[in-house]
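Support request from a user on the community tier.

User writes: "When I paste my structure tokens into the form, the page sometimes reloads and wipes my input. The last time it worked, I copied everything first. Here is what I submitted, just in case something in the input itself triggers the reload:"
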């Protein structure tokens, strides 16, 4: 029997790839989005399909729908976008998750929360296992997002304890791939767009801070396995390959235009120094690990941005 899925944030970067997978599996999909950072073009191929519905809605408002699975991704993910209106970001995380858990409880649906490695803040433990409780500034410019996701996780577990709601929590590490917006502001999109335009690549700080980059197809596979397994989570989903931001810049420059300059810009407040997932739990419980190394995943991502800039 086919399932009916609700994907909040389904017109966004990760959400639209997830919609593609669920549609390909023959299920029904309701894509819900307010188009803050998402766009119809990402799911345009499904508009008019009998198993697909598109709803313009803001998750800070309640909604009534009959669904079996809720993939709760709605929330801006790039610092540039989530800091644009930080109060709205906190509302989206808290009220949005509250409303979706209320819906899950009412209709008996299983809810997967797209949480984040940001719950670990600027980590004092490296790499980060799920048991690490994090080092998050409650009052900084990243707090609307980091603390928003932390309270969203809390709500999930309280709904589970109080009402028996079935929840799954994925702690997603930096993910990249086609359909990121050219003005997304995250590092992979910034560097690729700069390199394609023949501009210098902007290192914030000295570029010695690290991140671990997961290709979007790998992430979506992990999300699907998590939704379908018996483990509530939280489970880290990310690629354990760790790179300095300078190494990333050199890699991208090398694939596009090796002659470009790297320039330094001020490091934003509370920018985490290092980040790398421990994925032992995902390996053991989901039988999952990323298959696509960074150098390989950059190729379709660069091709996507070439098309975007040409359009
Ligand atoms: P994105 O910005 O491309 O997608 C977010 C989507 O949510 C967009 O389509 C946006 O329009 C929609 N949205 C935002 N606020 C909304 C609201 N109030 N109501 C309805 N829709 C709303 O970001 P993404 O990279 O696809 O991230 C998806 C999810 O995964 C987010 O919850 C994010 O926190 C989480 N995540 C992503 C990453 C990553 O590296 N991509 C890492 C950790 C966690
Ligand atoms: N960064 C950078 N240049 C840019 C954009 C980002 O050096 O043009 C750095 C940023 O300071 C951070 C890292 O790249 O240390 C990852 O930034 P991103 O915004 O992609 O994600 P997050 O900080 O949320 O992990």
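"...and here is what came back when it finally went through:"
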């Amino acid at each position: 029997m086919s399932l009916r899925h609700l994907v909040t944030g389904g017109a966004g970067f990760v959400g639209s790839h997830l919609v593609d997978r669920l549609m390909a599996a023959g299920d029904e999909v309701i894509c819900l989005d307010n188009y803050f950072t998402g766009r119809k073009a990402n799911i345009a191929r499904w508009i008019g399909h009998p198993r697909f519905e598109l709803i313009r809605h803001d998750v800070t408002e309640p909604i009534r729908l009959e669904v079996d699975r809720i993939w709760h991704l709605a929330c801006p993910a790039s610092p540039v976008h989530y800091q644009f209106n930080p109060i709205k970001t906190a509302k989206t995380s808290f009220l949005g998750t509250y409303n979706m858990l209320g819906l899950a409880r009412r209709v008996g649906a299983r809810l997967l929360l797209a949480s984040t490695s940001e719950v670990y803040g600027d980590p004092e433990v490296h790499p980060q296992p799920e048991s690490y409780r994090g080092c998050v500034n409650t009052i900084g410019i990243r707090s609307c997002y980091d603390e928003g996701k932390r309270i969203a996780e809390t709500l999930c577990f309280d709904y589970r304890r109080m009402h028996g709601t079935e929840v799954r929590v994925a702690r997603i590490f930096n993910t990249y791939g086609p359909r990121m917006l050219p003005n997304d502001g995250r590092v992979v999109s910034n560097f690729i767009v700069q390199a394609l335009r023949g501009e210098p690549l902007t290192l914030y700080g000295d570029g010695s801070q690290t991140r671990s980059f997961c290709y979007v197809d790998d992430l979506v596979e992990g999300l699907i396995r998590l939704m379908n397994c018996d483990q509530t989570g939280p489970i880290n989903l990310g690629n354990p390959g760790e790179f300095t931001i300078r190494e990333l810049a050199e890699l991208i420059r090398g694939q596009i235009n090796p002659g470009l300059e790297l320039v330094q810009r001020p490091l934003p407040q509370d920018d985490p120094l290092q980040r790398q997932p421990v994925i032992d739990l995902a390996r053991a419980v989901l039988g999952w690990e990323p298959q696509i190394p960074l150098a390989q995943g950059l190729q379709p991502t660069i091709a996507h941005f070439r098309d975007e800039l040409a359009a």
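Agent notes: The reload is a front-end session timeout and is unrelated to the input. The first helix runs from residue 13 to 24. The radius of gyration is 19 Å. Escalated to web team.
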